[in-house]
Design a protein that fits this description.
2 domains; disordered C terminus; 11 helices; mainly alpha; Tetracycline Repressor, domain 2; Arc Repressor Mutant, subunit A; 230 residues
Length: 230
Protein backbone atom coordinates (compact mmCIF):
# COMPACT_ATOMS: atom_id res chain seq x y z
CA UNK A 1 0.00 0.00 0.00
CA UNK A 2 2.78 2.40 0.96
CA UNK A 3 4.60 1.72 -2.32
CA UNK A 4 1.38 2.33 -4.28
CA UNK A 5 0.88 5.61 -2.45
CA UNK A 6 4.42 6.76 -3.30
CA UNK A 7 3.97 5.78 -6.92
CA UNK A 8 0.69 7.71 -7.09
CA UNK A 9 2.40 10.81 -5.68
CA UNK A 10 5.18 10.51 -8.24
CA UNK A 11 2.67 10.22 -11.06
CA UNK A 12 0.76 13.25 -9.76
CA UNK A 13 3.92 15.33 -9.40
CA UNK A 14 4.98 14.28 -12.88
CA UNK A 15 1.66 15.43 -14.32
CA UNK A 16 1.85 18.74 -12.44
CA UNK A 17 5.35 19.38 -13.75
CA UNK A 18 4.22 18.50 -17.26
CA UNK A 19 1.25 20.90 -17.04
CA UNK A 20 3.47 23.65 -15.61
CA UNK A 21 5.93 23.15 -18.47
CA UNK A 22 3.10 23.37 -21.03
CA UNK A 23 1.80 26.58 -19.46
CA UNK A 24 5.26 28.15 -19.52
CA UNK A 25 5.76 27.21 -23.16
CA UNK A 26 2.31 28.53 -24.05
CA UNK A 27 3.01 31.83 -22.30
CA UNK A 28 6.38 32.12 -24.04
CA UNK A 29 4.77 31.44 -27.44
CA UNK A 30 2.16 34.13 -26.79
CA UNK A 31 4.82 36.67 -25.79
CA UNK A 32 6.90 35.86 -28.88
CA UNK A 33 3.86 36.32 -31.14
CA UNK A 34 2.99 39.66 -29.50
CA UNK A 35 6.56 40.89 -29.96
CA UNK A 36 6.54 39.81 -33.60
CA UNK A 37 3.13 41.39 -34.25
CA UNK A 38 4.27 44.65 -32.67
CA UNK A 39 7.22 44.87 -35.06
CA UNK A 40 5.13 43.85 -38.10
CA UNK A 41 2.30 46.29 -37.40
CA UNK A 42 4.73 49.17 -36.87
CA UNK A 43 6.67 48.32 -40.04
CA UNK A 44 3.90 47.37 -42.48
CA UNK A 45 0.78 48.86 -40.94
CA UNK A 46 -2.04 46.91 -39.36
CA UNK A 47 -3.97 46.14 -42.54
CA UNK A 48 -0.92 45.15 -44.60
CA UNK A 49 0.57 42.91 -41.93
CA UNK A 50 -0.01 39.19 -42.55
CA UNK A 51 -0.58 36.52 -39.94
CA UNK A 52 1.88 34.26 -41.79
CA UNK A 53 4.62 36.87 -41.41
CA UNK A 54 3.84 37.44 -37.74
CA UNK A 55 4.03 33.72 -37.03
CA UNK A 56 7.17 33.21 -39.15
CA UNK A 57 9.06 36.08 -37.48
CA UNK A 58 8.27 34.50 -34.10
CA UNK A 59 9.40 31.11 -35.39
CA UNK A 60 5.87 29.72 -35.04
CA UNK A 61 3.15 28.32 -37.31
CA UNK A 62 -0.25 29.76 -38.27
CA UNK A 63 -1.75 27.12 -36.01
CA UNK A 64 0.24 28.46 -33.05
CA UNK A 65 -1.04 31.96 -33.84
CA UNK A 66 -4.68 30.87 -33.90
CA UNK A 67 -4.19 28.85 -30.74
CA UNK A 68 -3.46 32.16 -28.97
CA UNK A 69 -5.45 34.78 -30.90
CA UNK A 70 -8.67 34.89 -32.89
CA UNK A 71 -7.39 37.32 -35.51
CA UNK A 72 -5.18 40.37 -36.05
CA UNK A 73 -7.48 42.60 -34.00
CA UNK A 74 -7.14 40.25 -31.05
CA UNK A 75 -3.35 40.38 -31.03
CA UNK A 76 -3.50 44.15 -31.65
CA UNK A 77 -5.48 44.62 -28.44
CA UNK A 78 -3.15 42.24 -26.60
CA UNK A 79 -0.22 44.50 -27.54
CA UNK A 80 -1.93 47.52 -25.98
CA UNK A 81 -2.96 45.64 -22.86
CA UNK A 82 0.58 44.37 -22.32
CA UNK A 83 2.07 47.83 -22.75
CA UNK A 84 -0.47 49.51 -20.52
CA UNK A 85 -0.05 46.92 -17.76
CA UNK A 86 3.69 47.58 -17.99
CA UNK A 87 3.04 51.33 -17.68
CA UNK A 88 1.11 50.83 -14.46
CA UNK A 89 3.92 48.81 -12.89
CA UNK A 90 6.53 51.32 -14.01
CA UNK A 91 4.89 54.64 -13.11
CA UNK A 92 3.45 53.74 -9.71
CA UNK A 93 6.77 53.52 -7.80
CA UNK A 94 7.97 56.69 -9.54
CA UNK A 95 4.97 58.66 -8.28
CA UNK A 96 5.11 57.10 -4.83
CA UNK A 97 8.59 58.57 -4.35
CA UNK A 98 7.27 62.13 -4.79
CA UNK A 99 5.44 63.83 -1.91
CA UNK A 100 3.88 66.89 -3.59
CA UNK A 101 1.19 67.19 -6.23
CA UNK A 102 3.40 69.47 -8.30
CA UNK A 103 6.23 66.96 -8.12
CA UNK A 104 3.98 64.12 -9.21
CA UNK A 105 2.68 66.08 -12.17
CA UNK A 106 6.24 66.84 -13.25
CA UNK A 107 7.26 63.18 -12.87
CA UNK A 108 4.19 62.10 -14.84
CA UNK A 109 4.92 64.60 -17.62
CA UNK A 110 8.50 63.31 -17.85
CA UNK A 111 7.24 59.73 -18.06
CA UNK A 112 4.74 60.58 -20.82
CA UNK A 113 7.50 62.40 -22.68
CA UNK A 114 9.59 59.22 -22.56
CA UNK A 115 6.67 57.15 -23.86
CA UNK A 116 6.23 59.63 -26.69
CA UNK A 117 9.70 58.84 -27.95
CA UNK A 118 8.90 55.13 -28.37
CA UNK A 119 8.70 54.93 -32.18
CA UNK A 120 6.91 51.60 -32.37
CA UNK A 121 4.37 52.59 -29.77
CA UNK A 122 3.58 55.88 -31.50
CA UNK A 123 3.12 54.14 -34.85
CA UNK A 124 0.86 51.50 -33.27
CA UNK A 125 -1.33 54.17 -31.66
CA UNK A 126 -1.65 55.84 -35.06
CA UNK A 127 -2.40 52.54 -36.80
CA UNK A 128 -5.15 51.76 -34.30
CA UNK A 129 -6.93 55.06 -34.93
CA UNK A 130 -6.49 54.92 -38.70
CA UNK A 131 -8.01 51.43 -38.75
CA UNK A 132 -11.01 52.65 -36.76
CA UNK A 133 -11.46 55.63 -39.11
CA UNK A 134 -11.21 53.48 -42.24
CA UNK A 135 -13.76 50.96 -40.96
CA UNK A 136 -16.80 52.91 -39.70
CA UNK A 137 -18.75 49.72 -38.96
CA UNK A 138 -16.11 48.75 -36.41
CA UNK A 139 -15.22 52.25 -35.28
CA UNK A 140 -17.53 52.40 -32.29
CA UNK A 141 -16.35 49.07 -30.90
CA UNK A 142 -12.70 49.98 -31.44
CA UNK A 143 -13.09 53.52 -30.13
CA UNK A 144 -15.04 52.38 -27.05
CA UNK A 145 -12.49 49.68 -26.29
CA UNK A 146 -9.57 52.07 -26.77
CA UNK A 147 -11.23 54.70 -24.58
CA UNK A 148 -11.93 52.15 -21.88
CA UNK A 149 -8.33 50.95 -22.02
CA UNK A 150 -7.11 54.52 -21.69
CA UNK A 151 -9.43 55.21 -18.78
CA UNK A 152 -8.47 51.97 -17.05
CA UNK A 153 -4.80 51.74 -17.90
CA UNK A 154 -3.29 54.31 -20.20
CA UNK A 155 -3.39 57.12 -17.71
CA UNK A 156 -3.58 55.30 -14.37
CA UNK A 157 -1.24 58.01 -13.13
CA UNK A 158 -4.23 60.36 -12.86
CA UNK A 159 -5.87 57.96 -10.42
CA UNK A 160 -2.62 57.89 -8.46
CA UNK A 161 -2.74 61.69 -8.26
CA UNK A 162 -6.43 62.02 -7.46
CA UNK A 163 -8.15 58.86 -6.21
CA UNK A 164 -11.32 60.95 -5.81
CA UNK A 165 -11.41 61.21 -9.60
CA UNK A 166 -11.62 57.51 -10.35
CA UNK A 167 -15.33 57.40 -11.23
CA UNK A 168 -16.11 56.67 -14.88
CA UNK A 169 -17.89 59.74 -16.28
CA UNK A 170 -18.41 61.22 -19.71
CA UNK A 171 -16.38 64.27 -18.63
CA UNK A 172 -13.48 62.12 -17.49
CA UNK A 173 -13.54 60.20 -20.76
CA UNK A 174 -13.34 63.42 -22.78
CA UNK A 175 -10.52 64.80 -20.65
CA UNK A 176 -8.51 61.57 -20.78
CA UNK A 177 -8.85 61.49 -24.57
CA UNK A 178 -7.74 65.13 -24.71
CA UNK A 179 -4.59 64.33 -22.73
CA UNK A 180 -3.99 61.33 -24.98
CA UNK A 181 -4.42 63.52 -28.06
CA UNK A 182 -1.77 65.95 -26.82
CA UNK A 183 0.64 63.09 -26.06
CA UNK A 184 0.00 61.51 -29.48
CA UNK A 185 0.36 64.82 -31.31
CA UNK A 186 3.67 65.65 -29.67
CA UNK A 187 4.94 62.11 -30.27
CA UNK A 188 4.00 62.13 -33.98
CA UNK A 189 5.64 65.49 -34.57
CA UNK A 190 8.72 64.32 -32.70
CA UNK A 191 8.99 61.39 -35.13
CA UNK A 192 8.36 63.62 -38.14
CA UNK A 193 10.87 66.27 -37.07
CA UNK A 194 13.08 64.97 -34.22
CA UNK A 195 14.64 68.37 -33.59
CA UNK A 196 11.46 70.42 -33.51
CA UNK A 197 11.16 70.47 -29.70
CA UNK A 198 13.46 69.81 -26.76
CA UNK A 199 12.46 67.35 -24.06
CA UNK A 200 12.10 70.08 -21.45
CA UNK A 201 9.61 71.91 -23.66
CA UNK A 202 7.59 68.73 -24.23
CA UNK A 203 7.51 68.13 -20.47
CA UNK A 204 6.33 71.71 -19.91
CA UNK A 205 3.46 71.39 -22.38
CA UNK A 206 2.43 68.06 -20.90
CA UNK A 207 2.45 69.53 -17.39
CA UNK A 208 0.17 72.35 -18.55
CA UNK A 209 -2.20 69.82 -20.10
CA UNK A 210 -2.26 67.70 -16.94
CA UNK A 211 -2.92 70.74 -14.76
CA UNK A 212 -5.87 71.63 -16.98
CA UNK A 213 -7.23 68.14 -16.53
CA UNK A 214 -6.95 68.40 -12.77
CA UNK A 215 -8.66 71.78 -12.81
CA UNK A 216 -11.72 70.04 -14.25
CA UNK A 217 -11.93 68.06 -11.02
CA UNK A 218 -13.92 69.79 -8.26
CA UNK A 219 -11.55 72.40 -6.84
CA UNK A 220 -12.02 71.23 -3.26
CA UNK A 221 -10.84 67.72 -4.22
CA UNK A 222 -7.65 69.08 -5.82
CA UNK A 223 -6.78 71.19 -2.80
CA UNK A 224 -7.72 68.44 -0.34
CA UNK A 225 -5.43 65.96 -2.12
CA UNK A 226 -2.65 68.53 -2.47
CA UNK A 227 -2.82 69.20 1.26
CA UNK A 228 -2.58 65.49 2.03
CA UNK A 229 0.46 65.12 -0.23
CA UNK A 230 2.32 68.20 1.03
Amino acid sequence: MERDSKNSKKVLLGRLEQETGKQKRSLLTRQQLIKSARANFARDGFENARIEDIAAKAGKTRGAFYANFKDKEDVFFAIFEEELDHDIQEIRPILQQVSTLEGRLHALAQYLCTLGKDRQRTLLNLEFKLYAIRHPARRKRLADLYSLMRLRCSLPEIDELLPEYQQLTRQRRAESLAVGAVVDGLAINQLFDPGFMKDRDMVRYLELCLWEKLQATPRSAVYRKAALLS
